[in-house]
Specification:
The structure holds 2 protein chains of 2 kinds. Chain A is mainly α. Chain A folds into 2 domains: 47 residues; 240 residues, MetI-like fold. In chain A, 67% of the residues lie in helices and 1% in strands. Chain A has a two-stranded antiparallel ribbon. The mean pLDDT of chain A is 86.
């Protein structure tokens, strides 16, 4: 590299004593805004502005229009909290989270441990399990609904059952037994596991290998190693994964809407398992009551924030291991 | 380590001043080469980022108007590129006015081409007007609702009227374009499109649904065509065996259909004279019966078919012996099964109790109230759906079967004069229950949730209906 006259290598000289200090500062500012500007503008227009607008809407009556009409104060909020369907949707979310969070956690941790222990072609396995993350939720939901778990004898799941001599089962529709949960949980599992596996892999690879060597020397079993070394040292990753899973479960919409909902003419299974976002979508887009829908969205956001903060406090997320 | 350390100012513009003999790198800054005059990587990237950012902003602002509209509206057949400004404001470039006309995706073959042909024919009559047909698959209701909120709404669209649309100014009164021909339109259709004494829509087609049954399968099982709910239950029990199910009413097991038909077959309706009618004791009794009916017969009712009840495939391919589907499907059923089918209304709740029922539905055309060429749109609707009898005949009879809403057209409709089609028209006029503009979507949601709880979760009928009634009453009060 040729020496560049205007720059002095440190430590012998000051930074740059330039008469163009002002200009450099302006150039730096320009560069800052050139890089950050478009993203900031997009954030402002597509995220912050709608949030403020939504909040304003939630304090007004707004039917079949997104401009506020009549000020009603907190009436939309009280209506939503008093709405049995909304409360039911929160319960549905609770059940859904109860299924999906531990299952995804266990599967992705298991997969991460397996992939980590592979000696050849680890990159191949990483990619293979991660690929479903790139698949659209809508596409996967429709394949699950129309192809794998349709209620007809030639659906894939029913054909598998047929091999074991079981009659064809209608997966989506009957409330008892609630087999639609199998469909909903498996589609999300398939789509998500790869992503969280990668997070766990990163966490696993940060664990000091000498600890494992020491454990081997001391004669610890595989299970012991996992319980006392691997799992505790994965604490930060585990907490992050759990938090992400919970927030993602709160925002579940695609698979519920596509698997359980019919389109026109009112034929719909959606009331079987209607998480909060689907209900808010119904209130806003189908019932065209945007005041109530916005109020519901803010109630939901408040719940998510409270739960996340509590979880963070309880688990000590972000505190880091102070040595 | 050598002299390859070059200082770079941190983002905030401050300068790091290392002390004598120090070579510590501050955690906030990095060290690269910069000169004032040479084109470096840094200045190149800055320029590129600015250019890209400008381009992005320009695309966002310019395409925002047209992009939103075309995203929801595949203007098939139009030779213009998607996202072009053509789909939004009627570009008065040289007297040309553009109207956007939305249909939902009809299942019958040939309908889309027909719709586009009508639009093209109008341009021959009025050369300065061009109509773009938007053929909307999927959840048409949601897409239309969203479009009607913004400025990209279609100028002319089809849907069913409800009061909220009138209050929000999304439709305009169309009394003036009816003129003398108003008397030729069926009164039921006119009532369904009237709010506060003004007509807001033009009925395009009248639709109804029927219980279709396979004559051969019923004969083989020794079942007579059912006239009460109990007989229907017996029929389902006897016909459902093996791969063939007894009945198909939709992928939710029939809850949506039952919600309407049980109510009407008990002799009541959602609202009567502006008051809630579905909490009547007859209705409670009817749904208690339906609850048992649903519980007993669920295994023999088809659920989870690839298409929903408005498509006759489950019936024509033999997945189900009986299907609730529309008059519109009759040509397809005739083609697949020939004469091996019969039609019935939804049976009365009991012998001598209630009445057979079906819905008197259909689609009406509306003109968007906040559009830019309302008068032109009204003229188009007048030409196409009020005056043009040939189009109405073609649309109603050449693809699926619908009943033309004009009385003279209906009387002249040859295909509807014989056989099962004629029975269907009779069923419609005798038992058809029309829609009520005062019944809004929000009321429908509350009611449907109650019915789902009753039929699928075995909840207490009276409690659920009363709960729904309080929500519906709250909505009704808002309408006053």
């Amino acid at each position: 590299m040729s020496t560049i006259p205007s720059v002095q290598p440190i430590p012998t000289t000051l930074g740059r004593a330039m008469p163009a200090g002002r200009r450099k500062q302006w150039g730096t500012t320009m560069a800052f805004w050139a890089f950050v500007g478009p993203m900031a503008l997009g954030l402002l227009v597509f995220t912050y502005l709608p949030i403020v607008w939504g909040f304003i809407l939630s304090l007004y009556e707004a039917r079949r229009t997104v401009t506020p009409t009549e000020f009603v104060g907190l009436q939309n909020y009280t209506t939503m909290i008093g709405d049995s369907a909304f409360r039911q949707s929160l319960l549905t979310f609770g059940i859904f989270a109860l299924f999906i969070v531990p299952t995804t956690f266990a599967f992705s941790l298991g997969l991460a441990l397996l992939v980590n222990s592979v000696t050849h072609a680890q990159a191949f396995f990483r990619s293979v399990f991660f690929i479903p993350t790139a698949c659209s939720y809508v596409v996967a939901s429709l394949v699950w609904k129309l192809n794998i778990f349709n209620g007809l004898p030639f659906g894939l799941a029913n054909q598998v059952l047929h091999i074991f001599g079981v009659d064809p089962v209608v997966w989506i529709g009957p409330p008892q037994p609630p087999l639609y949960w199998v469909v909903l949980v498996t589609v999300r599992l398939w789509l998500q596991v790869g992503f969280y596996m990668i997070l766990f892999l990163a966490g696993l690879q940060q664990i000091d290998q000498t600890l494992y060597e020491a454990a081997r020397v001391d004669g610890a079993s595989r299970r012991s190693t996992f319980m006392h070394i691997t799992f505790p040292l994965l604490r930060n990753t585990s907490v992050a994964v759990t938090m992400l899973l919970l927030i993602a479960a709160f925002q579940a919409f695609d698979e519920f809407y596509n698997i359980l909902s019919g389109a026109i003419a009112g034929s719909s299974n959606i009331a079987l398992a209607r998480p909060p976002l689907v209900y808010l979508y119904q209130v806003s887009i189908s019932d065209q009551d945007f005041g109530r829908g916005s109020a519901g969205a803010f109630i939901l956001a408040a719940i998510i924030i409270v739960i996340t903060v509590i979880q963070g406090r309880v688990v000590g997320f972000g505190r880091g291991d102070r040595r | 380590m050598d002299l390859d350390w070059y200082e770079r100012t941190s983002v905030s513009g401050s300068f790091e001043t290392p002390g004598e003999g120090e070579n510590v790198v501050s955690t906030n800054s990095q060290w690269i080469a910069v000169t004032g005059h040479r084109l470096t990587r840094r200045s190149f990237f800055t320029a590129a980022a600015v250019a890209a950012g400008t381009g992005l902003l320009a695309a966002c602002s310019g395409g925002g108007g047209g992009g939103g509209g075309t995203a929801a509206q595949p203007t098939t057949g139009a030779a213009k590129p998607a996202g072009a400004a053509a789909t939004t404001a009627p570009a008065t470039t040289g007297n040309a006015i553009e109207l956007n006309h939305w249909y939902h995706q009809y299942g019958e073959a040939g309908t889309q081409q027909a719709a586009m042909k009508y639009a093209a024919d109008y341009s021959k009559v009025k050369p300065n007007v061009k109509v773009n047909v938007g053929w909307t698959p999927g959840d048409y209701g949601a897409k239309l609702n969203s479009a009607l909120l913004g400025s990209d709404a279609p100028d002319v669209f089809e849907t069913q009227l409800n009061r909220d649309m009138v209050r929000a100014g999304q439709v305009v009164p169309l009394d003036d374009i009816y003129g003398d021909l108003k008397s030729d339109f069926n009164e039921v259709g006119l009532r369904a499109n009237t709010v506060d004494g003004k007509l807001y829509g033009v009925k395009m087609i009248d639709d109804t649904s029927l219980v279709y049954y396979r004559k051969s399968l019923l004969d083989k099982a020794g079942v007579t065509p059912p006239t009460t709910l109990d007989e229907l239950g017996t029929a389902i029990d006897k016909l459902g065996s093996g791969q063939v199910k007894g009945m198909y009413m939709g992928n939710d097991g029939g809850v949506g259909v039952l919600g309407d038909e049980i109510l009407w077959s008990s002799g009541h309706d959602y609202l009567k004279d502006g008051k809630i009618d579905f909490t009547h004791d007859d209705v409670v009794a009817a749904f208690t019966k339906a609850q048992q009916f649903f519980k007993d017969r669920s295994p023999k009712i088809l659920s989870g078919a690839p298409t929903d009840w408005w498509d006759p495939t489950a019936f024509t391919t033999g997945l189900s012996a009986i299907q609730w589907t529309g008059l519109w499907a009759m040509p397809a059923i005739k083609k697949a099964l020939g004469d091996d089918f019969g039609v019935l209304p939804w049976p009365a709740i009991g012998a001598g109790q209630g009445t057979p029922s079906t819905f008197w539905g259909g689609w009406s055309q509306f003109v968007y109230g906040k559009g830019k060429s309302i008068e032109e749109a009204k003229a188009y609707v007048k030409w196409l759906w009020i005056e043009n009898k040939d189009v109405q005949k073609d649309w109603s009879l050449s693809y699926g079967f619908h009943v033309p809403p004009r009385k003279t057209s209906a009387a002249e409709a040859e295909p509807l004069k014989t056989g099962p089609a004629k029975e269907a028209v009779d069923i419609l006029s005798k038992y058809g229950v029309p829609g009520n503009p005062a019944w809004t979507n929000a009321m429908g949601t509350a009611y449907k949730d109650a019915i789902t709880n009753i039929l699928k979760n075995g909840a207490d009928v009276k409690a659920e209906l009363t709960g729904a009634a309080s929500k519906v009453q709250a909505e009704l009060d808002k309408q006053k």
